[in-house]
Amino acid sequence: MPKVIDIMKYRKLALLCLFISIPISMINILIGSTWLAILGASLFVIFLAISLTLWKCPQCKRRLPLRFDHDTDVEDVYRCPYCETKFLSGKIID
Ligand SMILES: [Zn+2]
């Protein structure tokens, strides 16, 4: 199995930033803190940066869709919608 960068790890990190950023921004609508606004925006920027730069298919190098699809996201195995390559963490599965 050819080794590729562990994009699932970056994907999880990106989603974590997104899931923290959303409630922070929601709470901040009520309390209006500048620091919380900066924190929420920073986490969202990290999410976008990781998703746009590292969330790519290791085989065909096309950018993968940002949203989760339950047909292709089976546990930790992800299937590329363009070239049908399946990969799990840092490995390509035949
Ligand atoms: Zn692909």
Features:
single chain; 94 residues; alpha+beta; 2 helices; 4 strands; binds zinc ion
Give a short synopsis of this structure:
The protein has 2 helices and 4 strands; from the N terminus they run H-H-E-E-E-E.
Describe the structure.
By secondary structure, the chain is an alpha+beta fold. The chain has one domain (7-93). Helices cover 48% and strands 12% of the residues. It has helices at 7-31, 34-53, and strands at residues 73-74, 77-79, 86-88, 91-93. A 4-stranded antiparallel sheet has the order 1-2-3-4, with no helix packed on it. A hairpin with a 2-residue loop joins strand 1 and strand 2. Helix 1 (7-31) runs antiparallel to helix 2 (34-53). The chain starts with 6 loop residues before the first helix and ends with a strand. The relative contact order is 0.20. Zinc ion is lined by residues 57, 59-60, 62, 80, 82-83, 85.
Rounded Rg: 16 Å
The low-pLDDT segments are: none
Q: Which strands sit side by side, in order, in the main sheet?
A: 1-2-3-4
Please indicate the count of domains.
1
Order of helices and strands: HHEEEE
Report the sheet with the most strands, covering strand number, pairing sense and barrel closure.
4 strands, antiparallel
Q: Helical region count?
A: 2
What ligands are attached or bound here? zinc ion
User: What distance lies between the first and last C-alpha atoms, to the nearest angstrom?
Assistant: 8 Å
Q: Which structural class matches the secondary elements?
A: alpha+beta
* Mean pLDDT figure: 85
